[in-house]
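User: Design a sequence. Structure:
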């Protein structure tokens, strides 16, 4: 319980005195309040009534079972999760157990410098206080789950063996007893546990749990990411046996669709094919100019039945996880690359939807069926695009007139409906790592965005909409893919930034995709195009799964469910089972038990998706750092994509890599963080490094095992803005009570203590995988 503030005057207080006491105390139980005011007997009963009245008036809120606090207030100390990051990289925390009206707080810098700065998803113990700009939180202690385990690299010295953590935010070096280190080599990647016991001084002691590889293994980046994020690997014997015992599909209980010339269009290196498409003109006289579009999806539900070993392990994994050199699949290979993969020329079980569109791209109807299909061709995106562009090959030439032209014409009709709907048009360029035959990195290149990608994406989106509509119409519970409207706080931050580049945005205006798209279009050919795109991206909320529908803001859809990737997403398998139950297509549909558990399933698959995204992102960072390690000392062009108290995040043009320029290396004056201008501003000269500025930097450090890049700024800052107010030192822009000591010594300054990067928001993904 909180420490009682200075003792107030004795006797039953009036409401205002009681509220003043609560503001100072932060939180208190009724017994604490009574003691503070010296209340006894009947006065305590009157106090209870007063507390009830203040609660009914909305001035007090419950805190735990017995405690009270001012409504909308935070306790003096609380356990929080880091839940958000704004355009400048400022972290926001939220109480783990909070009421609906509990506000967020900005996480302030740690003045005592107690270890690495927190990052997204971390759990912390913090102290709360009211600041000039709202609630502030200061770190007391990190409470990350699993802190007793360390993934690290063996470093052997003359007398000791150490485990150095691969997490760039951690400084917990472990000492390994000599008896446990005899079989270890310098550079081994290990999973170690912190040994219990008193270790007041010096490094903690650790024991080796598992030797998982070598630091210099080309695949180390993926191995580290898998273990660091707890991505499940492999399958049990029971699951493998169950997968191998599945029968080849027949026509029993299925519609024969083998005459429909479906084709698959996937990445060139795809090993599983879970969707196929076909389009033809609608011959109905009532729909002149209209199109029929078929989407067939692998019928995973026919093989992965509820409450089997396969199902339990698929649910636990939640989804497949993709790395540059490997995939950790949700289903065993005998299914994911075998019976559930829509291979060319082979009979495959499918769930298919036949959609009808009019000449203006409006969907006028659809119907689901459980069928048996046979893919007529397997194309890569590049093949399909080249064919449409006039470059035919042996695979595309024979199907050009009958299959490819109709597909493209149907898509261009569907595009009219998409443009009318106006989904969010954020450009999110991606990079792909090219692996060499020996497992090394041959290069990094932008991932091409082709019309073929957009064709498949739009057809998958429409199939997903059909699934949600059918399940709603039949009153069948489902898991929606939801994407909420940006919060007011994010819109205010966007408006503040746009003001700095002369673009008006009414803070009271309700956000919608057309307004965002208008902004993106207005700035597309200006110097601010990239940074506006980046800030709009970060203004978006994160999509998730839920049995409750709030719509999909980014796609501008009222209802949306994932149906098209059941090989790699458990959410889609649940939707398939729902359709089977709703349309009476078999006995292997959604069960009553699953319906009762939908909320927990939705929460779980959201968590596993985010786990995979974090692991994939970390592996990419490490691969890129390994690629750039040979280029330390070289100069690169880039753009400032994040502005924080501790430095500038720079995205390099050539590789898309993100590196940090520590604030302590930015010259001879103290640069303060101006959160409204989204810039670091010189204390004496007012010179500025604003968000979005193009710069030249030198690579000072690249650490593959952590994925960290440290850069040195080569560009001069912009001149002082004559219209800008003086920097607001002492508020959110300052990391302490005075300017920090300026960095001296080697170029690049100290290593950054924070590995966090600006939030990615809605990332573009292949074939709508995570929309």
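Assistant: Done.
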């Amino acid at each position: 319980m909180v420490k009682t503030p200075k003792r107030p005057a004795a006797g039953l207080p009036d409401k205002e005195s009681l509220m003043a006491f609560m503001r100072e105390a932060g939180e208190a139980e009724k017994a604490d309040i009574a003691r503070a005011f010296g209340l006894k007997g009947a006065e305590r009963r009157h106090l209870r009534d007063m507390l009830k009245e203040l609660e009914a008036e909305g001035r007090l809120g419950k805190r735990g079972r017995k405690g009270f606090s001012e409504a909308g207030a935070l306790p003096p100390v609380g356990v929080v999760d880091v839940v958000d990051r704004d355009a400048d990289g400022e972290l926001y925390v939220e109480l783990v157990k909070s009421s609906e009206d509990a506000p967020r707080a900005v996480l302030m810098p740690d003045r005592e410098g107690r270890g690495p700065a927190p990052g997204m998803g971390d759990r912390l113990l913090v102290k709360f206080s009211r600041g000039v700009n709202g609630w502030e939180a200061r770190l007391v202690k990190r409470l990350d789950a699993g802190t007793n385990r360390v993934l690290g690299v063996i470093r052997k010295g003359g007398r000791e063996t150490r485990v150095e953590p691969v997490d760039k935010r951690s400084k917990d070096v472990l000492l390994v007893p000599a008896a446990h280190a005899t079989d270890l080599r310098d550079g081994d990647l290990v999973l170690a546990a912190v040994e219990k016991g008193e270790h007041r001084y010096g490094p903690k002691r650790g024991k080796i749990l598992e030797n998982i590889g070598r630091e210099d293994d080309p695949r180390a980046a993926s191995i580290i990411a898998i273990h660091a994020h707890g991505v499940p690997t492999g399958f049990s014997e029971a699951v493998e046996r169950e997968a191998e015992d599945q029968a080849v599909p027949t026509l029993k209980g299925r519609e024969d669709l083998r005459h429909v010339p479906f084709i698959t269009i996937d990445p060139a290196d795809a090993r599983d094919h879970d969707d196929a498409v076909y389009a033809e003109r609608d011959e109905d006289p009532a729909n002149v100019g209209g199109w029929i579009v078929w989407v067939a999806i692998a019928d995973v539900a026919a093989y992965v039945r509820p409450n089997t070993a396969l199902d339990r392990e698929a649910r636990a994994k939640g989804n497949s996880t993709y790395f540059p050199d490997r995939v950790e699949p949700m289903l065993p290979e005998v299914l994911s690359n075998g019976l559930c993969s829509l291979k060319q020329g082979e009979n495959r079980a499918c769930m298919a939807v036949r959609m009808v569109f009019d000449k203006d791209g409006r969907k006028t109807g659809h119907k689901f069926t459980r069928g048996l299909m046979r893919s007529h061709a397997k194309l890569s995106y590049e093949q399909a695009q080249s064919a449409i562009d006039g470059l035919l090959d042996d695979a595309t030439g024979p199907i050009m007139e009958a299959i490819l032209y109709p597909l493209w014409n149907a898509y261009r009709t569907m595009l009219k409906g998409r443009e009318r709907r106006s989904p969010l048009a954020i450009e999110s360029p991606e990079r792909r790592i090219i692996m060499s035959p020996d497992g090394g990195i041959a290069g990094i290149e932008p991932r091409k965005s082709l019309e073929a990608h957009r064709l498949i994406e739009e057809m998958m989106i429409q199939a997903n909409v059909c699934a949600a509509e059918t399940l709603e119409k039949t009153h069948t519970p489902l898991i929606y893919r939801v994407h909420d409207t940006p919060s007011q706080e994010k819109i205010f931050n966007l408006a503040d930034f746009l003001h700095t580049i002369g673009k008006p945005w009414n803070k009271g205006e309700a956000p919608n995709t057309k307004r965002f798209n208008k902004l993106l279009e207005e700035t597309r050919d200006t110097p601010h195009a990239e940074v506006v795109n980046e800030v709009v991206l970060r203004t978006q909320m994160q999509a998730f799964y839920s049995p409750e529908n709030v719509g999909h803001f980014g796609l501008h859809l009222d209802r949306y469910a994932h149906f098209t990737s059941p090989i790699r997403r458990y959410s889609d398998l649940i939707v398939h089972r729902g359709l089977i139950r709703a349309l009476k297509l078999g006995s292997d549909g959604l069960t009553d038990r699953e319906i009762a558990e939908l909320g927990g399933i939705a929460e779980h698959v959201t968590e596993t998706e985010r786990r995979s995204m974090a692991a994939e992102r970390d592996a990419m960072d490490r691969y890129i750092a390994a690629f750039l390690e040979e280029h330390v000392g070289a100069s690169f062009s880039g753009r400032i994509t994040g502005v924080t108290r501790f430095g500038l995040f720079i995205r390099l043009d050539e590789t898309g890599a993100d590196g940090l320029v520590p604030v302590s290396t930015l010259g001879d004056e103290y640069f303060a963080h101006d959160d409204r201008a989204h810039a670091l501003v010189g204390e004496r000269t007012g010179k500025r490094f604003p968000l979005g500025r193009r710069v030249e930097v030198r690579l000072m450090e690249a650490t593959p095992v952590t994925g960290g890049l440290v850069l040195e700024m080569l560009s001069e800052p912009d001149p002082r803005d004559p219209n800008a107010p003086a920097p607001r030192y002492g508020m959110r822009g300052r990391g302490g009570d005075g300017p920090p000591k300026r960095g001296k010594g080697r170029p690049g300054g100290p290593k950054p203590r924070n590995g966090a990067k600006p939030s990615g928001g809605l990332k573009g993904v292949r074939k709508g995988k995570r929309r």
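Confidence is low (pLDDT under 50) at residues 1-7, 729-769. The longest strand covers residues 363-374.
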